[in-house]
Write a structure and sequence with these properties.
Length: 570
Amino acid sequence: MTPPAAPSRPTAPLADDAQGGPALAAWHAGWATAVGLTALGAAWLGADVPVQGLDAPAALTMATPGLLGLVLLGRDGQAVRAALLAAWSLAAIAAAGLSGGLTGSLGGFVFMPLAAAIALGPSRLAPFGALATGLAVLSGLTAAAVTGPREAAPVMAAVSALLTTAAAALAFRLSAARQTRRLAASVAAVAQVETVLAGQPGLTLVLDAAGGALAAYGAAPAALPVDPLFDDGLVAAVHAPDRPAVLAALAKARAGGEAQVRFAPRLALDRRILMVLRRLGPATGGDEPPRLIALALDATLAHAREAGLDAARAEAEAQNAGKSRFLANMSHELRTPLNAVLGFSDIMRQRLFGPIPDRYADYAQSIHEAGGHLLDLINDVLDVSRIEAARYELSIERFDVREVVSAAVALVRVQADDKGVDLAAVLPPEALTVAADRRALKQITLNLLSNAVKFTPAGGSVTVSAEALGTHPGADLELTVADTGVGVAPEDLARLGRPFEQAGGAEQRAQGTGLGLSLVRSLAELHHGAMSIDSTLGEGAAVTVRLPIVVAAREPVEGEAQVIPLNRSA
């Protein structure tokens, strides 16, 4: 469901005086009417009332802003009201120049910009109205100095003063009405906020800097009654061991940050309260201590769920560690009789104690092969369980990684030749010295090569390469074994590397145990490295192990890396 769009904030109309436009337009219309009638009356009574010839034009000039104010019926806003005040200012200055200002027949009109500023509002317009009044007075004095004193016109002067007084009184009334509407809107907004706060499911608190409650809204959790918060403060309502955390959260909130703290109430130790605290308003920089706002929620159920999950995780980890210890111990116990089986079957198949029937020799060969497979499985299980039980200790030494890779290749060479798989190594021509566990690195290489040969059909190829990436210090060893075998499906890539996880069909899975790559990954992580697999189904795979173990980066040499063919004479 799409949430409703937020209401746009008005830009032109005054949001707090939406109802004042018609009344203000009526004020302008009344002024224009009164001044227009005054001007017409002055012209009609010209012989009986002592007036100057320019009084009527000056009066009509002052009526112009009143006519312009009718625009408020259709459009209102700060810009419109500022423009109207400017019109009032110009009209007052012009009328003062025409009629002689304060000493002329329309002397009261010089105060109309100030009255208009009060009527138009907001309060920041009043200084501009006062300034315009001062300029109108100055304009009248200048005109009197240039043209000389005017003949006294007490009737017109009294009429202008009366009109200005009436306009100012109405302006004050409009301003008071505007302030009343703003106050009513503020009270309504406060009431609405209080209604929302009172209806929320949590408890909202306004706190002083020390944690004393100043106001409370909403539903208080049963474990955190409100009255003690006003009497003793927040800290006193918290269980003693949790008070340092609550004090730290208060300090963080006072500093301007957002703090979350969970604590047990002193009156209900089996419950938990989650409280979020923030500073109420920006920092003022004065001596007044800051106020805080806090939201308190009952977190008992969440705490119970987390405690249950922690207990279940601890139990699972303990069971897994026990399983790993069991496998490690049992693997040692199983290897002892298995070595005897392998030894005696090897003696029988080689006929060391005399001839035996060919059928028994075939049985001895099958027993030896099955025992060897079982021994490899037990060794893998032993290594994996020792790593998971954190009992695998690395024996770090310095050596040339080419020696380890060559030794692993030699062990897999017979298997590759028997399957008709081409096996090659791409190694640097100069020594590549690393600091690592020699046996672990050999096991990594051997497992990767055995897997590659195992899943590569006859006529395929397997290539192992080793190189240093970067320069010492900080160089990494990158060991890559690539093959042209059956490859791995994309959905299986994420699973490979976990114990007993295999890819492919049942026939392919029957060729392994799912521990080879898991052991490679674990041994790489023990060296603070990582293993990655890149494969395309039906085209082959490339397994890369990257280890930060190079201790002496080789110098760059001309030519390409050395390719060592692995045939029987190598």
